[in-house]
Amino acid sequence: MTSSNSPQPVATPHVRISFFGKLRAYFFTGLAITAPIAVTIWATLWFITFFDTWVKPFIPSYYNPDTYLPFKVPGLGLVFALITITLIGALAANLVGKTLIAIWDNVLNRTPVVRSIYKGSKQIFETLFLQKGASFQKVCLVEWPRRGTWSIAFISREIDAGMIGLEKGRAMYAIYVSTTPNPTSGYVFFCDVDEVRLLDTTVEDALKLVISLGLVFPKKPLAPGLESKVAVRLPAKKVSRTKAT
User: Where are the alpha helices (H) located in the chain, listed in sequence order?
Assistant: First the structure.
């Protein structure tokens, strides 16, 4: 027998969704599915068209099927560019190619204005594509812009403090904190290795987190207790900051 003082179940009110409400939900569901596909197709076509526009005029007519076919072949400029870049890389691997590149570097490095652009861009591309160990390999958390708040950062490399004018023998990280949603703008920090907390996630997933305004989290969850094993929080220290150009 049920007591009169026992709590009674509360009935959940049934919410009716209007016809237009359902249409709105269907529309946004379809938009979430089709928009990424459309953006991917658009970006791919733009990339192919870009190379076709700039590279095809340099292709000899004998090798260009557009001259004798009733339709244009998309992507031919991209294929030709990839082959040309690969051949240049093969040429640079021998003595003759190295000599020619050295002469080219010497000419550009002596040209005012151009040399600053050339040297800067060359250093960036050599770091990203040739020095594999120097590209972003680790993701970390750093207390920025103030203590108690954490930002996603990317470790560029480990350096000796003497390389930036501080005391020698002090292990530091050169790290990059990007802005949201544009990851190409941000800040370069130099801080002690024990002032960061390493994360068990890939650079790609961390970039997705930054670009998505914190909405898309890494698929792989962070390992429990990982930060406590690899880093120890220290009292506030002075951190060098340099605005990235």
Answer: 19-55, 76-91, 95-109, 114-129, 203-211, 226-230
Domain contains 128: no
What integer is the mean pLDDT of 66-92? 85
Banded pLDDT at 74 (limits 50, 70, 90) = confident
What's the pLDDT at 9? Answer: 57
- Domain assignment present for residue 176? The answer is yes
Dihedral (CA of 206, 226, 176, 121) sign: negative
Domains held by the chain: number: 1
Residue 190's pLDDT band, with cuts at 50, 70 and 90, is very high
Examine residue 53 and state whether it is found in any structural domain, yes or no: no
Buried b / exposed e across 135-167, counting CB within 10 Å, b at 16+?
ebebbbbbbbeeeeeebbbbbbbebebeeeeee
Q: Is 158 in contact with 148 (CB distance < 8 Å)?
A: no
Domain that holds residue 218: 136-243
Q: Between the CA of residue 40 and those of 46, 49, 85, what are the distances in Å?
A: 10, 14, 25
